[in-house]
Amino acid sequence: MNFHASSVGATRYVGERTPRKEDSRLLTGRGQFTDDIQLPGMMHIAYVRSPVARGRIVSINLEVAREMPGVQAIYTQADLAAIPVQMMSFFFTPIESPVSLLADGRVACVGDPVCMVIAETRAMAEDAAALVEMEIEEETPLVTIADAKTGPLVHPDKDDNIAAEMGDEDMLEEAIQPLLDKAPHVVTHTIRHQRIAQSPMECRACVASPDGSGEMTVWMGCQSPHLAARYLALVLGLPQESIRVIAKDVGGGFGLKNIPWREEVAVVVAARLFGRPLKWIEDRYEALTASSHAREQEVTLTIGLDDEGKLLAAWSDYACNNGAWPMGEDANIAVHMFMWPAHKLPAYGFVTRGWYTNTMGLGGYRGPWAMESLIRETTLDKAARKLGIDPIELRRKNLIYLPDQPVTSGMGIEVTDITPGECLEKLVANVDVAAFRKEQAEARKEGRYLGMGITTYIEPTGSAGSMQPMTGETVHVRIEPTGKVVAMLSTHSQGHGTATTMAQVIADRLGVAYEDISVFEGDSAIGAFSPGAAGSRQGVIAGGATWKATELLADKVRAVAAHLSNASVDAVTIDGGMVHVEGAPEMSRSLKELAEIAYGEPGRLPEGMATGLEAQFRYQPPPMTMTSAAHCCVVEVDAETGFVKILRWISSEDCGTVINPGVVEGQIAGGLAQAIGQVLLEEMPYDARGNPLAATFKDYLMPTIFDVPDFEYLHANTPSQTIGGMRGVGEGGAIIGPPTLVNAIADALSPFGELGGKKGEVTLPLTPSRILDVIEQRDVSGHSAHAAPVPAAAPVSAPAVPEAPVAETAAPVPAPAASASIDGDWDMTLKAPMGGQTFVAHFETQGTSLSGYLSAPEGQQDFSGGTIEGGRIKFEVKVDKPMKITLKYDIQLEGDTITGKCKMGMFGTAKVTAVRA
Amino acid sequence: MSEHKIELTVNGHRHAATVEARTGLGEFLREELGYTGTHLACEHGVCGACTVRVDGVAMRSCLMLAVQADGCEVTTVEGLAAPDGTFHRVQQALQDNFGLQCGFCTPGVAITLATVLQDNPSATTGEMEAAMSGHICRCTGYQGIRRAIRQLAGENA
Ligand code: FES
Ligand code: FES
């Protein structure tokens, strides 16, 4: 792609370390964060939260609290229920747990909001909140994934504690195990990832102000005001134009603020009921223990390799803790989709499940599927040690390089321009690995343990068009009559610097000074729908939209100038805010002069041209744009104390066209710092009664300046196929960082044994005592004693099929009534990875052959060629969206219900249920 | 709750107010006086976002009561730049080196560094980095802050 067209002047802004537009307000204390909003008559909210993890609410006594000075109202769920709410996931699918804004008769985790106190000041609200008396009949909570597999139901109306599940168990026996059995080498590795509190420095915050008749202005710490407004309208069943969300400055999001959650929605509902502006500012205790959490998961990966180290087959068994009220039930299918598309792996299968427990719900966090890189890269290194192959060589043998592409992975992901191998080559060309190995050997003689970890990864970024909220982006650029440039975007920065990078693109493509450009964003009243900061997409999609919109505007400027000068459009260039005509220097005009004509003297414009100087473009990019990288980290582990010191960290990444290296490196660095926190420091532990144990930043260890080394960058960039050629870079550091550091530590410890001991179970964070477990070959950390059993590894036996806990009230399953007719309409639910999908299934039988259609508001799909035998129904439906896959239904008719499964190509297998319509 | 009359100077402006004994200085500066540049990110003295300068000393305004600032001279991030808007050299160094992203931790970082340099205009990188031990930044991985420190110490960023 020729992304430096000749129409504009010589001054380049794309690729420059341009100082950020956001900084002048943020450095002088003039930012506008949600807590900075003060409105006349505004009241303050404090939540009363459950102190127990599970139980029935017997009574709530508000008498004393209501008498406290300044208290205006105390709401329980019974009050808020006056406005019905259906909570949704990020994908705009209904949350499947019976979640309500405040606890509805039961509490299911510590921190569950039970009452909302509204008072004149925050202090008064907190005083009163402390005096609300709750009697809760406490029950034994389920805390861990292991608890969830065997314990009573977290949500009594559910069939089991499985919040979501995908994958195909049969595939292990049918396809994978035979390959593993034949493989000369089989390596199994388990990782238990601790629970993380996302911890943006600004906690969640919401101000809701009811205006006029039924309108609401909401200031909210969010990742996209547009998405927040759409979400609120949807869950409250209101027209979207009645809700405006403003978020000028937000102190970090990292996935936590993807969607408004219970507390924010409750503020909006309460503001409607109360009729005055309300403010809720989460404090750090709430943020740590009750915002939502992320990452608690365990996975066992088994890989088979030949003698040369080539991958033959792989199987993984994955489980994640969804807590009681996840922001969307999740089995993390993306872990499996993105584990292997960059590798030559003949066969891969998995089972993946999310489990409900009595803990705080699962929310988003930078690179939610990051486990794919962590388990793959650590297992590959373990295999390299076992086979005695250099870990870089092992990767070279298995990675897909550019000449191998395009190629489609077993999971149906087509890659056309990924470069993990190329990034790796650039990395090893710049890091003297041989010299390091020598230094490492010398150091070991002195009792110093150095280690090097090298990893590669790819990441889907800029996703658009395959999931409801993941859309394209609209950009409006205008040259004002003053000659200054204004852009209206739907982007949102929680530190991303989008006003800076988008202004750079405009300056570059239009030929105007960066200083003369103002970017407006952060308000749902500006621009069109966009999910903002979600999935590393803004640089790619908003960048591409800005690129094209600006070129359209430049075309118009040149057309006007050519017309005025009687010159050809090709002879016109714009540079430094001046419009020049080649060969006629006397015809040069400032953009201001030209704009005055375009706005004020329509008669001088070309026939039929609209007045003014503005352009709008909506960019729908390719469905996914891949980013690749290879990283190297060098550590020293102190064998006495178990402390890890990071000596070097080099990133070699391909993020396409770099708009601003300062911004790009800042995104990588921020993600890497979070990775270091995850591997070494951060943890939100729970005790057996379901109490979260890290309540302050003295217990929850955030990385400080001393924990993070200087990062070095080797930019190995190749432009992508998007307009402008950008690739997303927001999440990458948090994805590739953890395996890079774990591998470096494992390498350092290799003289002592494998990290994770004989069982091969690595538990994060790698605290000094867990590292001493390896060095001293004994249980220093006390971890092994408490460890719950992990999913069985594939080569030993088939993966443990969890016994679904049975509801005490469950009715006996009726015997299959094979003779019942299936003909007619059924309300069918497919438990798809992005939430449940409900549609009408229509069946018509003729003997044993079956035809019909599936019908949803989005459209109807006919099918034929199905079969029905003894109540067992099989049919196939081909779909094109979100991608081309064949859905293979295999379901069983039992009286008036149908249950079974549907194989969905790369998405694995989903549960199907149906009842007669 | 007892109330107290206090007088203090903030960024060169004199303010008189009546405050509850329990009101924190950070809360008072933000809510009563409108200096919302001071951010409260933990309210328990660990993160450093709330740092302001009180009589020349960098203080955590979440751990200090407003009454304790009676008669004091306070500088918040709003008071760092010159009256004509020219950045303090700490602000300039942070901008030059991409030392901030979301900007929530930044006011405290800027006040601490400015205070270190006020006490010792030729403070070393080691001294300034040591002062950063009391600040948490979730966004930047401290890269730009460290480069800014090097620039302030006259080294190559
Ligand atoms: S808010 Fe004062 S140290 Fe965190
Ligand atoms: S810039 Fe966001 S916390 Fe430091």
From TrEMBL, chain A:
Keywords: Molybdenum, Oxidoreductase. Residues 28-140 form the Aldehyde oxidase/xanthine dehydrogenase a/b hammerhead domain. Pfam families: Ald_Xan_dh_C (PF01315), MoCoBD_1 (PF02738), MoCoBD_2 (PF20256). Residues 1-23 are annotated as: Disordered. Residues 14-23 have a biased composition (Basic and acidic residues). This is Xanthine dehydrogenase family protein molybdopterin-binding subunit.
UniProtKB/TrEMBL annotation, chain B:
It comes from the Bacteria. SUPFAM superfamilies: 2Fe-2S ferredoxin-like (SSF54292), CO dehydrogenase ISP C-domain like (SSF47741). Residues 4-80 form the 2Fe-2S ferredoxin-type domain. Gene3D superfamilies: 3.10.20.30, [2Fe-2S]-binding domain. CDD domains: fer2. Keywords: 2Fe-2S, Iron, Iron-sulfur, Metal-binding, Oxidoreductase. InterPro entries: 2Fe-2S-bd, 2Fe-2S-bd_dom_sf, 2Fe-2S_ferredoxin-like_sf, 2Fe-2S_ferredoxin-type, 2Fe2S_fd_BS, Beta-grasp_dom_sf, Diverse_Oxidoreductases. PROSITE patterns: 2FE2S_FER_1, 2FE2S_FER_2. This is (2Fe-2S)-binding protein. It comes from Novosphingobium album (ex Hu et al. 2023).
